Amino acid sequence: MTLNINGALRGCVGSLSADKSLIEDLSSNAYSAAFRDLRFPSLEDSEFDQLNYHISILTQPTPILFKSEKDLINQLRPNIDGLVLKEGTNSGTFLPSVWEQLLDREVFLKHLKQKAGLSRGYWSDSITVDRYEVDSFEG
Asked: Which CATH class is domain 62-133?
């Protein structure tokens, strides 16, 4: 669930796996995006009429098999792939909509590594990457 006000991000929280019914998950993530996203103060009453929401329903992530960082980069599909990068206890995900800000495959991957708590230049043969797609709804 992504919340925006006047085109600016105001909260974003989601789930990578279905542990609850879709309606329970949407409700929980909407509440968390509004009141528990630590990057932002909780929404105030005066902001609700300005709120725009974006719902992304993810497909089941599937592993990308690659031999090197360059091989991985070559397999990325801009504007289609959402990615989950994992390295040990570190992990991060980007929805396909992030491609709108990070058009270059290499830059996209560097920022995803950073989101996962790794340096942008980090590489290891134990990194795993799954891809998913989304169905999106806005209101």
From this structure: alpha beta
- Tokens 């993530």 belong to 29
CB-CB contact of 121 with 95 (8 Å): no
Is pLDDT of 66 > 90? yes
- Which SS3 state, helix, strand or coil, does residue 51 take? strand
Burial of 135 by CB count in 10 Å (0-12 exposed, 13-18 middle, 19+ buried)? exposed
Where are the chain's structural domains? 2-58, 62-133
From residue 20, how far is each of 23, 39, 44, 94, 103 by CA, in Å? 8, 25, 28, 22, 33
Q: How far is residue 93's CA from residue 91's CA, in Å, rounded to a whole number?
A: 7
Q: What pLDDT, on the 0 to 100 scale, is given for residue 87?
A: 98
Kindly report the pTM of this predicted structure: 0.83
